[in-house]
Specification:
Layout (H helix, E strand, L loop, with lengths): L2 H8 L3 H11 L1 H10 L3 H11 L3 H8 L3 H6 L8 H21 L2 H8 L11 H4 L3 H15 L5
Length: 146
């Protein structure tokens, strides 16, 4: 079911484009979130995007301990699944703007005046924060001072 998510994370072939496009479709994203993402996908996202368990737990609004206790075949609830899927989309956008995960991760940890002297990473624990970070990426992408 989440083979396309794996492809989206890898970002290596034509299938990736359609996978990301599927995630960008709100109805597809809602359906996937409601079904629940497998816990094992959290590890894939963490590895691919070089995020720590602590960072991911904070972003997903669950404790690190709870994250570790979940079996790999357990499904995340709809809210947590949606956040993970939106994080994949955000990282895809960030990599498109910065060209590499390393460059994007470096930017994600810098305090920015446009974010009230917070780092983009600090903003990701709320839907509004995630949307705002994505908006800042769009501004950078279009050469608007941020």
């Amino acid at each position: 079911m989440f083979q396309f998510l794996h492809g989206a994370i890898k970002m290596t072939n034509f299938e990736t484009v359609s996978a990301i496009e599927r995630l960008r479709n709100p109805f597809e994203l809602i359906a996937l979130a409601q079904k629940g993402v497998l816990r094992s996908k959290v590890d894939e996202v963490a590895k691919q995007f070089a995020l720590t368990d602590r960072e991911l737990a904070r972003i997903l609004n669950i404790s690190e301990r709870t994250l570790h206790r979940l079996r790999p075949d357990a499904r995340l609830d709809a809210s947590t699944s949606e956040k993970l899927l939106k994080l994949v989309l955000l990282y895809q956008h960030g990599i498109e703007v910065f060209d590499t995960i390393a460059s994007f991760n470096e930017w994600m940890k810098q305090k920015l005046r446009i974010l009230g002297d917070k780092s983009p990473m600090e903003m990701l624990d709320t839907a509004t924060g995630m949307e705002y970070v994505d908006n800042v990426l769009g501004r950078i992408e279009w050469g608007i001072y941020s």
